[in-house]
Amino acid sequence: MSQSVERSKRPLIVASIMLATFMVAIEATIVATAMPRIVGQLGGFTYYSWVFSAFLLAQSTTTVIYGKLSDIFGRKPMLIGGIVIFLAGSALAGFAWSMTSLIAFRLLQGLGAGAIQPVTMTIVGDLYKLEERAKVQGILASVWAISAVTGPLAGGLIVDHFSWAWIFWINLPIGLLTIIGFTLFLHEKIEPRKARIDYLGTILFSIAIVSLMVILTETDADLSILAALAAVFIVTAILFFLQERRAPEPIISLALWSRRLIATSNIATLLAGMALIGLTTVLPIYVQGVLGRSPLVAGFTLTMLIVGWPLAVMLSIRLFRAFGIRRTLRAGSLMFPIGASFLLFLTPDSSPVSAGIGSFLMGFGMGLISVTSVVLVQESVEWSMRGSATASIIFSRSLGNTLGATTLGAILNIGIAHFGSGDLASKLHEVINQPSGLSSLATNPGIRLVFHSALHWSFWGVFTVAILTFATTWLIPVSREAGRKPPTQTEMQEALSS
């Protein structure tokens, strides 16, 4: 299989990738900004994190499948198919009538989103040489910066002046333009071959993750139910690994993931994903509920996160040449726990600026971790495995997001029960489950203090995972001199051997 794309059409394909990237990037800030209002209208704050977790579970489960299928059947059909499913979920999510229906439609969105990031990143790897790729990735990184500004602004304006449904429907015109672009400009010569999809592995993985999510969410359930769910998780997890060892086309290639570079990069990415989704889900409700600020201000604290990320990507090639990949990665990843530490010092009287600084530092650290992992992993495998290798990074980040959203949500609910002493916890849930509930917390000091204390438990969780992320980046094998000059493929291979 090969790409038959004229050089003059490559910018048009990149433009289509930018649209697809924008659609996914803006989804993060626009939904996070609007979620407190959505929960207030639909009720069910206990399942707040499930709106994120359902999307991320489906995304993480399908990412590796799309990556493998793109290696077999081509990038174009997999990408367009994923976008169509994503748009269907977006359209239905706008009509959600309850938290249950919203979670179901977010699950459908995630089934399509699993194709967008890994396949678009793989297309860039196919079309551009290594020395050209950093420039293209810098262009794509600018899309995240643009979405970082427009996402919170759009989310705040929509929930204040229109129906919240438009935070999902805004994807429809963008997605249609993206499909048209790929249809017209991306052409492939495909030599189809038979493939056996690991459906059993996919089912076992999904059951294991869902059971773990329910255990973390339903912390007040009967002990026997939790024990049964724990047994389901353990059994399905064991069966999943056994299945992956014998499956001809496993969704997770144990041989691929056992390589030190790929294993350590994926672990670091998974932990970073846990920390970032914790920040994304918890910080907006702290800014609105405890600091008493508007959804727009809460959204802009997350803007700093998504500004820091692409800025790091755009600067990465210069940093690599000046200091080497290893020093840049380790110094940059140190910003991750430093940024998370800002959250620990937030009080009801703090300025949102402090939260924004912490978000920016975490985003910058994530940018360096992300770009380094993708470049090293892509160059460590041959073309026929590039889609699967790239998907492994996206899969790890998505799985980290899934586990992080669920775990941090569980910590928040436990904190509310602990600090609320029964009555206060009930009153807090009653207030939050109203359309303007968060904005009224500032007028009730007792409930506000409970919310502040519970959210700080979640902040400690983010900080702990950030520390683990920093420690794991030191295990990624890369030589001291790697990246100091424009790297060739041979030099990159040598960098992986140390």
TrEMBL record:
It is a multi-pass membrane protein. The chain crosses the membrane at residues 12-35, 47-66, 78-97, 103-124, 136-158, 164-185, 197-217, 223-242, 263-286, 298-317, 329-347, 353-377, 398-419, 457-476. It is found in: Cell membrane. One of its GO terms (cellular component) is plasma membrane. Residues 13-481 form the Major facilitator superfamily (MFS) profile domain. GO terms for molecular function: transmembrane transporter activity. Keywords: Cell membrane, Membrane, Transmembrane, Transmembrane helix, Transport. This is MFS-type drug efflux transporter P55.
